[in-house]
Amino acid sequence: MSDLLDDADNGSNAPEFSVSELSGAIKRLIEGEFAHVRIRGELGRISRPASGHMYMDLKDDRAVIAGVMWKGTASRLNMRPEEGMEVIATGRLTTFPGQSRYQLVIEEMRPAGVGALMAMLEKRKALLQSEGLFDPSRKRPIPYLPGVIGVVTSPSGAVIRDILHRLRERFPRKVLIWPVPVQGERCAPEVTRAIQGFNALTPGGAIPRPDLIIVARGGGSVEDLWGFNEETVARAAAASDIPLISAVGHETDTTLIDFVSDKRAPTPTAAAEMAVPVRMELLSWAEDQQSRLARALTTALGQRRQRLTDMARALPRPANLLDGPRQRLDGAGAALPAALIRTVQTRRVSLSHSAGALRPSLLRSLIANEKRQLDGQAQRLAPALSRTAQGKRDRLSALRLSAAPIRADLARKARDLRALEQRLSIAANAQTQSWGKALSSLGRLRETLGYEETLKRGYAVVRGDGNVVTTTAAARAAGTLEIQFADGRIALDGSAPIAPPPDPAPQPKPRPKPKSKTPKRPPEQGSLF
Amino acid sequence: MTDTPIEEMSFEDAMRALEQVVGQLERGDVPLEQSITLYERGAALKARCEAKLKEAEEKVAAITLDADGNPAGLKPVEGL
After folding, report:
1. Is residue A322 part of a domain?
2. pTM (2 decimals)?
3. Which of A184, A239, A476, B14 has the fewest CB atoms within 10 Å distance of its CB?
């Protein structure tokens, strides 16, 4: 029984703690002793619950220490802790008495050493490259002569001074400085913001939108330049609509932004040189162009003038052009009088030849000859005429008309006509008489066949509702009955005959609209009495 | 040749157009009337280039940021 109880006397005189007391003592001891430690180790398992706090293990080949990074610290961290990464963490140790545990509350964490940094950089590079952000096709051309240049850098220091100095030498421009810290924790977020901010400016706004951005920083250690290796900065530079020149560090330093910028300058001064051309050179270039223009025009004119002169020289002189014709004219002019005289003489000779044969006796003999012929014709004319007339007269007398046969013919034709007239009237009378007879016999026949003749012999026709009634059944069915005698019709109720209607004129007209008349008028039926 | 009026061309456009005009004229294969037109255009382009070159003016300002870190205005910078 006594074995079951702790015997205070049976052992040492060590004091007795409660669990809480001991835990408290340990806590005080640990938290006092390790209130600020720097620890180097490899990151183990990392978890990032929704709370925003970050839990991770720091380990080496023999031991593990649990670490926590509270939300506020974790969000400020300018690196992304990854498993396997070697880091240097700064913080304090705390205990967790409820579970008999202790942990490191990390307040700052950086990759350990250049090697680790570079490994991280390579990883980022690979990521961005796989996204195509380094493609040469993404690079925009730098404007030849930007109007406004935006510079993202520290407002104090040699860098901005160098840039402005070189710009001034080459081609003074409007420069907008977006001041940023160029190292430390604030560097990356502010550079990112500056690049985005320049892009967000509206063209023509109160603050002019730059045509070119230079992101610049002087030389420094890898850690100093680290801000420009941050992914946010690189992504902002890649997304920039405005062409961007990066000039970070010295020529040998390459940062992530250099891969995504449209142009990488080895130094800030070089960036200024890339940004603008040399004004004086351009001025002399313009002068040069002007003189080339003038020279070209002069040459063009000169060449044409030369060709004109050459061709003009090749043209014969107008005076010479006329020499030949003029000589021919002179020759012809000289030959003209002699030719005229010769022609006249020739004509005269031929005239005198012809005139020689022309004598009056020749003409007279011609006339006498013609006259003889004419006389002969005239003598034959009169007998020919009388002969012709006689012939015609003879033919006329042979054709003379006589009236006697015509009259005889007329008389005979008249007789024939009268005989025909008589025959026609006789025939017509006979025809008319025979038609008359046939007609009257047909009339009689009609009367004997019609029922009305029968009425005269005492028969009568009974009609019911206008139709002939032939049976007692029909008579009973009929509303009104009417009897037709030879001299007219009578209704069976003794009223006036319905048909045939006598002369309608004396009949009083029925009232066409009785209702419209005065109600004093007796009803129609009353007329029966 | 572009259709942009010379007075509205950027320096770079005017420069390119001028080089083109000079080259055309120097080849000497343009008709006389056109070469005079070209010369006049070249002179105008050169004037435009020169005007743009004379516009060179240094003006340096730093952007001031408001509490949210957005650009609020400009502050002239001197002595750099």
Report:
1. no
2. 0.52
3. A476
